[in-house]
Amino acid sequence: MAQIYKPGVKLSSRVCKTQIMVLRIPAVELEIFCGGSPMEVGDPVALKELQGENNGTLVGKRYTDESETMEFLCTRGGEGSISISGYKIGIKAAKKLPSSD
Amino acid sequence: MLTNHAQNYANQLLSDLGIKKVILKQSDHPALAYRRSGLLDISSQMIPVPLASHADGALLALKAISQNISKLPICGSQLLGERARIMGLKSKKRKTAGGKGRLIDTDDGCIALNLVRDSDWDLIPAWLEADVSNWADLKSIAKKLSTNHLLSRAIDMGLAVGKVSIPNKPKRWFSFKEYSKANIKKPLILDLSSLWAGPLGSSLLGLTGARVIKVESPDRPDGLRFGNRKFYSLLNENKDCVALDFHTKEGLEKLKFLMHQADVIIEASRPRAFKQLEISAVEFVTKKPGKIWLRLTAYSRDQNRIGYGDDIGVSAGLSGIMENLYGYPSFVGDAIADPVNGIHLALLIQASLYKGKGGIIDINMCDVLRHAMGELDLIKDEILQEWSSISGDDSIPLYEMRDISGHARGLGADNSVWL
């Protein structure tokens, strides 16, 4: 079911171990999928079968749409890919290293 | 005023490393080493922890097992205040010397949050689940949340945080898994690490005669290149610089080629980084006798947690000790975990070369720093008074700075030599 998500929300895949955290997101109704099934807010439930073509998710990587209106952090990787209808979701380039610490 | 603190720590380190050598060399009293290294100026307050002397001890141990020691620094504690002295930095109790980290009160305690990159601020709304973009708002929201809640979410997200508390000293400060034996005379070191701890370690080894290649990715070079030039050069002069894009097939093959040639690999990446490149440390160390692979992480590998010198200093207990002594927590030194780890890292590699043992060495910055702080039996008001008066009466100039006139090589400047 489409809904409005807030930054900081954790989502779990229903087809694999993938978990993501919403970092930035527009305030519009969206339906976020992983491996072809809608993702659940909070901890995972019983797993369903993977659907469609999947390249998987990688822990620590950030995922974003083409115009970078939203951003997700993968906190646990899995076999399913993240998808949102109307958007093309892919890995965001790694952040630069800091110039001091 | 000379004491045995440094020599005792050096002998303990050598014994931990299985090296039968005994060092007899008295060094400056810990309160003097703390002052003369610049740490007292940076932190404004004395801390009765012999950390500066233990840095001296770690360097004494390194000198005891190195062939050429003439180029090494005069003492280990000299390295602790180096960046702050070059750049004129001072910490402001609740603010790091570098200026990007703060101590933040929570509902039930205090944490350090180190937002070293401006882009780290992008994570704050998600971390706090609130629209926050400045320290004032951040503080007022964090005050209502528990330390554990804030820490666990920050760690999940890859934010650098540390809890103000005083952890116990770890039983071991490194782990070593031996895979082979070989006597390597002039080692070739491939340093894939960046910032301070790893590069300092490889530079110390370079000063003892090792050949060092610094490897960077062209789209993600060592961030210190864009910081203070003199400090960057101090850590990286005399290194060959190679730049490789690990995300292309060709770049990855070239990286593996260099990694196979090297006798020592130093890396400070997250455990998943090499996994995602399908590079296994075991595969490399088993292919060349005597090969050493050192993995440096912020905390133990299983925690999968990032950290920088100042927030790790908090996690290791320095700010908790200050809170006990002065009634409020404060930062100690400038990214203190970095230089302390750099010396220990160099010692570990030199010890493996000295013994002719190849294998995988794991160290984490929090445990090494906590180990170097020693037993905390000196944290008493009377010792604080004594050490404060020793340093207060000291009018000798600070340790002479190392020569900062060198120039490090540019990104990928030596690609044609090595690829």
The mean pLDDT of chain B is 97
Q: Sheet with the most strands of chain B?
A: 7 strands, mixed
Spatial order of strands in the largest sheet of chain A? 5-1-2-7-6-9
> What is the overall number of helices of chain A?
0
How do the strands line up in the largest sheet of chain B? 6-12-11-10-7-8-9
Low-confidence stretches of chain B: none
Strand content of chain A: 25-35%
What can you tell me about this protein's structure?
The complex is a heterodimer of chains A (101) and B (419). With 101 residues, chain A is mainly β. Chain A has one domain (10-91). Chain A is 0% helix and 30% strand. Chain A has no helices and nine strands. The termini of chain A are far apart. Chain B has 419 residues and is α/β, with parallel strands linked by helices. In chain B, helix 1 (5-16) packs across helix 4 and helix 4 (51-64) packs parallel to helix 16. The radius of gyration of chain B is 21 Å and the shape is globular. The model of chain B has no long low-confidence stretch (mean pLDDT 97). The A-B interface holds A 6-9, 21-24, 58-60, 71, 73, 75, 93-101 and B 83, 98, 100, 114, 116-117, 119, 122-123, 125-129, 153, 156-158, 194-196, 219-228, 270, 272, 276, 308-310, 335, 338.
